[in-house]
Amino acid sequence: MNSNLALIPFFSAILVILVGKPFIDFLGQWRLKQSIRQEGPQSHLAKAGTPTMGGWLIVLSALVVALFFDRSPNTLALAALTLAYALLGFFDDFIGIAKKHNKGLSARAKMLGQLSIGVFFALYLGLSGRGTSLLLPFTHAQWEIGYFYYPLVLLVLVAATNAVNLTDGLDGLAGSTGAIAMGGLVALLSRYALHQEGAIIFLLAMAGGCLGFLWFNGHPAQVFMGDTGSLALGAALAGAALLGGLELFLIPIGFVFVAETLSVILQVVSFKRTGKRIFRMSPIHHHFELGGLKETKVVWRFGIAEGIAVLLTIGLM
User: Fold this and answer.
1) How far apart are CA 251 and CA 12, in angstroms?
2) Backbone φ and ψ of 102, nearest 5°
3) 211: which residues sit within 8 A by CB, 6+ positions away?
4) C-alpha 38: how far from its chain's center?
5) CA-CA distances (angstroms) from residue 272 to 106, 208, 266, 267, 276?
6) What is the tens place of the pLDDT at every residue in 114-137?
7) Angle, CA of 270, 166 and 205, to the nearest 5°
8) Quick check: 168 and 225 in contact, CB under 8 A?
9) Mean pLDDT of the chain, nearest integer
């Protein structure tokens, strides 16, 4: 991989840091501020009124930097996918602000939007000649799945975007784990996916944007990424993996996101079937918070767990 690519996350992070303060002031002036759900930890109620939609800082910086370095079809497709999901998240955030609560689009409308965007990306993959095979994790074997691949594209996009969305519940959590996961995926793409420099460039730009965003999103957060950012991060991860045939690697690479999602599923199933909860609160980061861990410690430990999972995945390959 070209050594100059190491400058991409640097430029993206610096761009976010430079424009971050005036952008956050702009969000505040237009009263684009977060509402906090009453069902969450009571300590989070103090965060009400924090500007949201800060995910635009990550997305727009990544678009500027990535497209400056490369404008190949795959880079443009991944940029369009990420921007589309950011716009979907923006509408979700904006409706929630307008209604003065943390619920924006209905679950059905949000799912319809995710699937519609996914169909267009699946169409691009089909027309680009990407093929319909997957690399199996921890092996060098290719798995040809034929037309089943295209429903899988939709599943991967919906699962990844919702998983990152669920993880975005503590200051700095989604940004830090997202940057780590993107770094791991870049390493795998560089090793196993030929002709995917465009995806690598865009992921590096997004990872740098996440690092710059943490300057403002670390506890106590000056801004939240909102669904604008979390859906975009999930889309970038999923889209890059799909381009490189590394879809199944999102499970070990996205260890924290998978754990967060499973905690919600298990909690719902357990409560519906037995009337009992497995966790104090889901997603699982709230379970540890309510168990007495400080928010910053939960974020640090989840970041460490994500880093270990990424290193283990790369090492076992």
Assistant:
1) 26
2) -85, 5
3) 9, 12, 13, 16, 175, 179
4) 24
5) 21, 41, 10, 9, 8
6) 999 999 999 999 999 889 999 999
7) 150
8) yes
9) 94
Q: What is the pLDDT of residues 236-282, one digit of tens each?
A: 999 999 999 999 999 999 999 999 999 999 999 999 999 999 999 99
Q: Are strands 142-144 and 133-135 parallel, antiparallel or unpaired?
A: antiparallel
pLDDT at 103 over 80: no
Whole-angstrom Cα distance, residue 15 to residue 66? 12
Placement of tokens 């079809």 in the chain: 73
The one-letter amino acid at 25: D
Amino acid at 105: L
Amino acid at 279: F
What is the model's pTM?
0.96
| Predicted confidence (pLDDT) per residue in 127-180, tens digit | 998 899 999 998 889 999 999 999 999 999 999 999 999 999 999 999 999 999
Q: Where are the domains of the chain?
A: 3-316
